[in-house]
Amino acid sequence: MLMTQLKNWFSRHSLILVYVAVAALILFRTLPYEIFGREVLDSDEAIFALMAKHLSVGKAFPIFAYHQKYLFGQISWLAAPLFVLFGPSVAMYRLPLLLMNLGVGLLLVFLLRRESRLKAVDAWICALWFLIPSVRSARGFTNGCDGAIEPYFYLLVIWMLRKRPLLAGVIAGVGIATRPFVFYGVTAILILELARNKNIKAFVRECVIWGTGIALSIAAIQVAAQYSTGYGGGNAPLLHKSIRHMFEDVRGFFAEIIPQTVGLETQRWFPTPGSPGMDNHWNVFTLALALVGAFLFCVLLRSLWKKGRPGLEALAADETLHFPAYLVLISFLTFIAYVVLSPPSDDIRYTFTLILGFVGIYALQRRLGKSSWLWYGSLGFVLGISASNLWMNGRSWFDLAEIDRAGHVTNLLDYLRKNHAVAVRSA
After folding, report:
1. Using CB atoms within 10 A of its CB, is residue 40 exposed (0-12), middle (13-18) or buried (19+)?
2. What is the spatial distance between Cα 320 and Cα 115, in angstroms, rounded to a whole number?
3. Contact indicator for 320, 115 with CB cutoff of 8 Å
4. Mean pLDDT across the chain
5. Is pLDDT of 37 > 80?
6. What predicted TM-score, i.e. pTM, was given to this entire model?
7. Which of 144-158, 247-261, 374-388: highest mean pLDDT?
8. Which of 179, 121, 348 has the alpha carbon at shortest distance from 255?
9. How far apart are CA 385 and CA 378, in angstroms?
10. Tens of pLDDT along 397-407?
11. Nearest to 292 by CA among 387, 327, 389, 300
């Protein structure tokens, strides 16, 4: 009798429990950088914190990062009112990032339920890739300079507004001014629209409306920037890569980027003479998980391949699959852009959006999967990765607390404030 009552209670309150679990996981991986934020505040982030300080006292009016023509400084604008109310600190600077992480996590689960018609628990399982990622990704999502979490917010918002392309284009333009990764979402929406309607004229019309909205937004930001403080200097790099470098980046994407982003490597903070660093390496557990994940992904691809063209056309007509397909397309475009356009390095700041692809693959599998063993195998895989990431993010609390007690890092923001710095430029 008691078990039946508990089951009924959990069934009635499953949605609330899922949203509480979403918030709990995000706070668990984010709060270490809020509490011990001064230990991992680098010079690039200090520039944005200093911009917020100048805004809070009316000393400057920055639109982009000081002496840059890109990296829209919206985090500084969000932090400035908090500096006025509670005083400047690293915690107040990072609070908007924490709230943005919470908003993205809740919105992602909400869209998986609404768009893909998944149960609350299934949506939460699919979103685990974002909710409890690797330590390196968790750090990136709380770094105002990396611009890792902002694209997630814009990518989800423009999907919700895709039926109003002009408004969505304006919002996408703000996101592109922050980081160009938002353009992956615009491209993915247009590809899905073409696949669904197969009408070239309607497709061209959509492209024009989206482009107009983006152009209006970026033009307005650039006009305002002409009257802002510290505008000028660096541009986003124009890259020219050889074929050899592209092949090297394909190898690096699968061997370095994916493991570091989703948590297939053991990652820990450790103190260095001037600042905390991060150690990452493979172990038997994560290597086994990687092999299992590769096998399950191949099985899923085989099942899609067997459907053939008629099956794929049927999938294009199923609206519950559009949002997961959108997430997978964003991840695919992330891979293409990384190989063709990104600097020749294994820097995951250019590939944070690939996590959405893992969320989309799991949502597609849940919607399409007729094989229970494939779903339960995939469930074991994501729970294994999440458990490993949960453990490593938990270690971050102790690692950063130990670094804080050791006093290895100077709070650069305090140093700049004490020396009355007006602007800082990092090489």
Report:
1. buried
2. 6
3. yes
4. 80
5. no
6. 0.87
7. 144-158
8. 348
9. 11
10. 888 887 776 66
11. 300
Q: For 113-122, 124-133, 223-232, 410-419, which range has the lowest pLDDT when averaged over its residues? A: 410-419
Closest of 252, 422, 232, 407 to residue 335, by C-alpha: 252
Amino acid at 46: A
Burial of residue 333 (number of CB atoms within 10 Å: 0-12, 13-18, 19+): buried
Cα-Cα-Cα-Cα torsion 37, 40, 42, 46, nearest 10 degrees, comes to 0
> CA-CA distance, 68 to 177, in Å (whole number)?
12
Q: Is the pLDDT of residue 409 over 50?
A: no
Cβ neighbours of 116 (radius 10 Å): 24
Q: Which amino acid is at 14?
A: S
- The two structure tokens encoding residue 394: 């938990």
Across 372-381, average pLDDT: 77
| Higher pLDDT, residue 34 or 425 | 34
CB-based contacts of 306: which residues, under 8 Å, 6+ apart?
Answer: none
pLDDT 10s digits, 7-19: 665 666 678 899 9
Q: How far is CA 326 from CA 116, 122, 155, 303, 308, in A?
A: 11, 18, 10, 19, 20
Tokens of 152: 């997630």
Long-range contacts of 334-340 (CB under 8 A, 24+ apart): 334/181, 334/184, 335/253, 337/181, 337/184, 338/249, 338/253, 338/257, 339/246, 339/249, 339/250, 339/253, 340/241, 340/246
